[in-house]
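Running this now, will post back.
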Amino acid sequence: MFTGIIEEVGTLQGLSGGIISIGAALVQADAHIGDSIAVNGICLTVTAFDARGFRAAVMPETVRRTSLAGLTQGAPLNLERALLPTTRLGGHFVSGHIDGVGHIKAMRTEGNAVLMTVSAAPEILRGIVEKGSVALDGISLTVAAVGTADFTVSLIPHTRTVTNLGAKSAGSPLNIETDILGKYALKLLGGTSPADRAGITQEFLLHNGF
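Update: finished.
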């Protein structure tokens, strides 16, 4: 479990044979084999580490679900160690399980902030609500608005400085994880697809305590 507060921006050194190699200076300082580290929001298991970085196992399903396959050597990666019980929860509960990949549609300045609009598939948008939380490349962000094919978040200068968002532009992919509480709510209400929700009736809601 993570908080979505990025600790360090590392660099991709290589991805081959189910192993990703990442250059880092901080997150591996107290690492152990088997520890979890979020890499661009993806929960990965440490298989080796030294003073210059770490390696982690990557499953084919992870590559299919995320933006890892499109990254090139040297790409900046948001890194966060797993949450400790004593850690301040500055963001929100992030599992590191990616729902899908969206793409930046536009970025525009508004005062001291940047409004970033991200396109997403309908099944992902169903789990995103205005003023709710979403993790983009592992960064905990607040949703400013939700459209029919996209959603918008507002970025303060600090966020762009200490994460990989400063290197992003229109068209860039982003790993998206919707709020875990919303996923359970959707499941209890009959699923995440319109076909699933068609079965919700007054009798169903009363039977389930609503």
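Residues 60 and 198 are 33 Å apart (CA to CA). More later if anyone needs it.
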